[in-house]
Batch of 4 targets.
Target 1
Amino acid sequence: MSEPYRPRRSVLYMPGSNERALEKAKTLPVDGLILDLEDAVAPDAKPGARENVCAAAASSAYGQREVTIRVNAAGTPWHDADLEAACAAGPDGIVVPKVGSADEVRSLVAAMERHGAPDRTRLWAMVETPGAVLDARAIAAASDRLAVLVLGTNDLVKELRARFVAGRAPLLTSLSLVVLAAREAGVAVLDGVYNDVVDLEGFEAECRQGVDLGFDGKTLIHPGQVEPCNRAFAPSQAEVEDARGVVAAWAAARGRGVVTHDGRMVENLHVEVAQRVLAVDEAVRSRS
Ligand SMILES: CC(C)(COP(=O)(O)OP(=O)(O)OC[C@H]1O[C@@H](n2cnc3c(N)ncnc32)[C@H](O)[C@@H]1OP(=O)(O)O)[C@@H](O)C(=O)NCCC(=O)NCCSC(=O)C[C@H](O)C(=O)O
Ligand SMILES: [Mg+2]
């Protein structure tokens, strides 16, 4: 099911055990937050982190930011309690790591309904294993409650026994398969994180690659990554002006099937692309 567009350029993870980070997030210009109970939280700290993130998600203190809780994966000792508490807190989304199949999506949705999650609480499924990449098409289409696919590129690199290299050649097949699955199902898709929080040049290059591949946005781990990511995943001024030109040229053509703008062929499909650029630009501007 296709949803109205909402900006998800930048979605920041933060450990649920880090109260300072949960507080700081209220001031950051992110589109979304993932309050983490999984990898960023040590086993002993998980019960306390669960209380922190549920209180934060229920607080309405994050304004327009989309607030999600990442629970521990199905089959772990913390999953059931995390899911029940997250459903009661009613965040915008519940992020489930290491989702393995369409059946798992359906059973997660059934559990969310059993735990009384409000309708606004959507499921975000992480794709971070070879099986999930190969089943991404079925996972993406398994439930109307599923709104976002999130790449977990650290786990994926580990599972593939691949290497982190500039340009991500070992991951390109997987990244594109997940984008294809998301687009066919009409759900959003977020790129994985960039682990080096001081290498801004490398980070910006990876954002541009994510845009080129078709991602809606990128998951982040540090506040310093937010602004460059927002810039990369929003249309540039030149793209907005070009889109306005395409729409105007089409309107002036009064029903001709093909025209040119700036020397380039414009058909109806290019007008649809231009209209989407303008809609994204407007949605992004309404955030600032
Ligand atoms: C990576 C970090 C551990 C770095 O922490 P630190 O060295 O403390 O950073 P700074 O000193 O530069 O922090 C400056 C200020 O910013 C705040 N801060 C830092 N990170 C965050 C954050 N993520 N959210 C909000 N605020 C943050 C600090 O508190 C400082 O504030 P102040 O004192 O007021 O100046 C750290 O950034 C971090 O923990 N990042 C998140 C790590 C995480 O969540 N990892 C799990 C998800 S990644 C993943 O596994 C995805 C997937 O599953 C996969 O497989 O790929
Ligand atoms: Mg992971």
Target 2
Amino acid sequence: MAQPTDNAQMNDPVFAEEQAHLSATYGALQQIGRTTAKALEEAALKAAADKESMADELARNFATADDALETWADFAAMDRIIDGYNLAQTANAEKLKTVELLLKRPYFAKIVVTPKSTGKQRELYIGAAGIAGEDYRRLVVDWRSPVAEVYYNQSEGPTSYKVDGRTIEVELQLRRQFDIDENRLNAYFDTTVAIEDPLLLASLAHERSAHMRAITATIQREQNTVVRHEDVPVLLVRGIAGSGKTSVMMQRIAYLLFQNRSDLKAQDVFLLSPNPLFARYIEDVLPEMGEANPETLTWEQFAQAHLPKGRGAGSPAVPLQRLEAMERAVRQLEFSDGDFCDITLFGTRLIAADQARKVSEKYGHLPAGPHRVALMREELWSKLESRLGSMAASDGIQDEISALSIEEQLRILGELYDPSTEQEAREQALVYVRDRFAEAFDMVERDEWLNIEAIGRRLAGGNIGSLEWLFAKMLVTGLSNPEARFVMVDEVQDYTEAQLLVLATYFRRAHFLLLGDPNQAIDEHTASFNQVKALMGARFGQVSECGLMTSYRSSPEITALFARLAADGARMEISSVRPAVEEVQLVRCETADEQQQALRRAVAAAREAGGLAAVVVPWKSDLKRTAAQLEGEGVLPLTDADTLPAEGVVLLPLKLAKGLEFDSVVVPDVSETVFPAGEDIARRRLYTTVSRATSHLTLISKGAPTGWLGSL
Ligand SMILES: Nc1ncnc2c1ncn2[C@@H]1O[C@H](COP(=O)(O)OP(=O)(O)OP(=O)(O)O)[C@@H](O)[C@H]1O
């Protein structure tokens, strides 16, 4: 391994050579940037000028059918030319984005490989994106390109990578990592082993920041298995706390977007995150990699998007058997009179329940399910149109329009209401009525003419909560998102089987990446990994699995503590790659007063240690009391609506701390009363709490500490 000091750099020919290569690459990138920006500007000017002259030259002659055809052909040709400009502009804009990204750090690694087949040595520089020089030679190779796999495999000598399922055998002669800022080479390292990976250690040594960072340059071998995993219906990743599950998930999204560049858009990817605070914590990772964010939502946001207004997401603790019974019952479902509702808007009934019932009867020969509902929806749509048509013809409407302000008339009609003929009056009235009742079409589209509550109760054989309501709607109307291509579920151990079934039904064509840690299941009734596998296996046929056992977050001392708290199977394999910091502090107090003093001292020490510290309490209901104990200490209580600050001391409940990390963590009470030794959920809650800390952990106990801590 070469890690040149400043002095050594002067005399190190390799360093000088690499600095020269970096300077040349940087210069080339700047040149590409300039050329591309110029091309963009010139093309924009030319397009504007051409559009103007093309528009002037257009004959706009519709006198005869032939003239009209010719005019349309001219228009189409003009459109094609404009499309061509737009395409070139988009490509150039993309290129400029890549240059901007690479100018921050042109590359982070170099590999020298010799393919067995050709025996011709290749030198490749790997960066956050790929780009070719003006001479068309590859300047930087994208980290997601097939050959870059060799870098992540981390072994010198004979190795291989895959292209379209074909294995390419190569000899890796050199694997060099770089610490680079713009055009300055700080150091280079020739390495293969993670534990001696200086770039990784340097990256881990940086203070943690308010936002999660991409780990592109330092993805480890076991993590790379997940990032570059072949496309499978369901990939289940089990990883200990801080093993990089979330980081790996973000890298995989970037990888998939690259792999499927031609047809996968970020909006076809969905990310289920534990809470909005966490969603904000990760929102910079993909943009930092030059990619757009996927649709990120919590379970509550997902559920509420489909539930009737005012209905909460409800409890997810619904037995799976109940949903399975509903699935069986829907096969025998018959609609009955009470299953239909009026569509009413602003006090006007636009579609009567009885109309919906009649439409349903018309399709009575079909099973009461998605196909029949789709046909009914279409017919009710037409009925709504005719209803609005007759409303437009009624006298009252004309008075309503006349009473509108000038601004409203212009907004809705695009002109003032001043019809010269009956026909014109009716046309304008129709525009007005359609605008006023536009929401009614959405109501028809959302099948609000169906009484899902009543149908759901029949399917479930009793009263239903929000989750059953949602599932009943999916079963009966076919509500789903068949366009979604990938669904990522972080913290999967916190989902119940029922929630997973709802997600699997809604995203029925998507491929799933599920990441979690059974030791971090902090709620009752959530699915075990075996249950996750059985459920997803039954729906999608195949569940592939990967494991992550190294902690990149916590010091060895903290990792050793949560490894002791892990369930037996995982305990032995858990390790940390960070340098040692300090022992975990356990402060035993006998009185409430002592505990408060200890807490205040711990908070002061955490503040002193720098970075971001958190006081993590078990429940939301503990917040008020702890905040009172810490009054005057400048501790910031956090809620769902907040964003994580870069430094200071925050106070938050465990549920909100999920997935996050802090330089210091203070736990106000780890006594037997709060974490009873006989309860497994207490073990998991303690494991999750302590594993939020990267460097400093202080546990305070009022009375005897929980038996889960053993002889700490
Ligand atoms: N290969 C890596 N290189 C650099 N940093 C890494 C790497 N892998 C993980 N990390 C860092 O380790 C920390 C933990 O990562 P992450 O939050 O993704 O883990 P996790 O498994 O999702 O954690 P948890 O389940 O405990 O919430 C983060 O600070 C992340 O940046």
Target 3
Amino acid sequence: MRFVKGHGTQNDFVILPDPDGSLDLHVSAVAGLCDRRTGIGADGVLRAVPTKLSPEAVEIADRAREAGAPVSPGGAEWFMDYRNADGSMAEMCGNGLRVFARYLVDAGLADPGEFDVVTRAGVRRVRLGTEGDVTIDMGMPRVLGESRATLGVDEYDGLVIDVGNPHLACVTGEPVGRLDLSAQPGFDPAVFPQGVNIELLNAVGERRVVMRVYERGCGETPSCGTGTVAAAVAAARLAGESVGTWTVEVPGGLLTVTLEENTSLLTGPAVLVAAGDIPPAHLA
Ligand SMILES: N[C@@H](CCC[C@H](N)C(=O)O)C(=O)O
């Protein structure tokens, strides 16, 4: 089985091309591939399957069209089947989608420029820039209320934000570089029955934030694209703003989030670093 390895601001992924839709990915196979000692090592797996060969993806694309989403006519040809490092499925991955788009273009499976990709969060438009950056239309983030994260004895208030997947974005005055994110922070399971990605962030300047994240199904990662959108929304609220461009500094680099009236855009790098073969026994 072929694989490609890539990352977006150090949030890293194993891409598994599945051109005939025959790959039955088990939780343990994903966890094995993502293991940093016994596998390839990654924060997640991106299975690339033609939309038409995945009933799940066909349904998502149809629903998006019915809801009036401007799915490009020949577009949305590929489904990004995203899995976290522990093997769990998630709806959306912002860094992963940039890397996925880069892979499709490099592999000759999509034309450079702009195209649509099906994700579990809906159809997302991607645009490859000329400088190596990729921009994704992430849709309209929804603020659903407030909740609290706990780190040891410390509590952090935050906003419950849906970016296709669930987030709790907590702005704090305590420098986030000092926080211990080595263990799962506490959260209210009644608010997040499916788990949550938790961002802790400092507003450090004019539309600039520093963020760390503890991802559902992964642990602390150097970056989370959907998390940066949630962070920008939380920082914007604090500043009494709702639109504009925020720079989000994560341990793995810099991402740009533009909040618009009806949508949000995420821009950042997407790099492919290796390719190879996985022995079939490793996927069994
Ligand atoms: N790293 C991702 C988010 C991946 C999914 C997340 N862990 C979840 O379970 O929702 C990103 O870049 O957005």
Target 4
Amino acid sequence: MGATPQLYEYLLANVREHPVLRELREETAAMRGSQMQVSPAQAQLLAMLAQILGAQRCIEVGVYTGYSSLAVALALPESGRLVACERDERCLEVAKKYYQRAGVSHKVDVKHALAADSLKSLIDGGEANSYDFAFVDADKRMYEEYYELLLKLVRVGGLIVIDNVLWYGRVADPLVNDLKTISIRNFNKKLLEDNRVNISMVPIGDGMTICRKLVDT
Ligand SMILES: C[S@@+](CC[C@H](N)C(=O)[O-])C[C@H]1O[C@@H](n2cnc3c(N)ncnc32)[C@H](O)[C@@H]1O
């Protein structure tokens, strides 16, 4: 966030990036939407949070070509599972190729559908309160809905991490009032006032808020 190119390069040089993550990042760099990918430093933080939690069951909402999901899958134990929700089949083809290459395909359960529908099916299938960790990085106007569904799916003490909460600085500019900016701004305000979770807004990448679920929902 706000790093000069020189500082970003320095930060990158100090991330321990798995070689397959690096290959995926390099392939994605030539693709449309590559700026959507989380930074290596963000992926490293997500993986560490999952490890600190001892996470076994994780969810990602918004996979794109798989960089953040692969980082989390690599951090999970062999018995771990990551439900990866994405609507775009072509992106998923790239992601699956790299899960395979990194030897983690058996840990990733890909859901090719609208993410809210996939989350609702998990709840309907009796999986409420059974996930340790969730990462949200899909449609910005749907953040509130994803969050409410994930609050049902994640156990007390589990984490929901939300990406792009600083939205390239636009959330702080009162002159910017497009729909996505307003959604993220409103969502950040909701989190600030939501006593079902503890929160920490971290200025890494485009800003991530870490929410820890405090009460049974
Ligand atoms: C910001 S990118 C995700 C980047 C990814 N976390 C990474 O680090 O590479 C957002 C992704 O969410 C997907 N997406 C957007 N709306 C969606 C929805 N309603 N359901 C499922 N996926 C959605 C898009 O297709 C896109 O691939």
